[in-house]
Design goal:
This protein is of the alpha+beta class. The protein is built from 2 helices and 8 strands.
Length: about 140
């Protein structure tokens, strides 16, 4: 099967994964290139692509708030993952994290993946955001 490619004025080239129903592109956010993953259900790919534009704008405005939420959750509930030094502040963790990707599906919720800058053993800090655009959970992955 050949790759499916969609040209979008905002996102640029969106490419479908060969094996699963996942579409991805790269986009600059605050000067850094991130991956954007679109995971549609059935025939709503274009709706997901359009909604992701709203998420992107929300993310541009609220990136630090999401990082602060993640840092607070990591320090309160995932401290065992922290490997760099015995003491790290919420501010230091939030300032050292940077976004690598976000994914959006057919619902209005989305997931953010942050690089931990080695603080949590080079794991990804996942932030889950609900339908209202509010962070609702954190997990340490990879």
């Amino acid at each position: 099967m050949n790759n499916v490619e969609i040209q979008d004025e905002f996102w640029g080239m969106i490419v479908k994964d060969r094996d699963i129903d996942l579409y991805t592109c790269r986009k600059l956010l605050k000067g850094e290139e991130i991956e954007v993953a679109f995971m549609p259900d059935e025939d709503d790919l274009h709706e997901v692509i359009e909604y992701a534009k709203e998420i992107f704008a929300h993310l541009e405005e609220n990136d630090m708030a999401f990082r602060e939420y993640a840092a607070d959750e990591v320090l309160n509930h995932c401290r065992e993952y922290i490997v760099e030094g015995a003491v790290i502040t919420k501010e230091e963790l939030a300032n050292r994290m940077w976004i690598e990707s976000f994914s959006v599906g057919s619902g209005k919720s989305f997931d953010l993946s942050y690089n931990d800058d080695g603080i949590c053993g080079n794991h990804i800090i996942m932030v889950f955001v609900d339908e209202q655009g509010e962070p609702c959970g954190v997990d340490i992955a990879g």
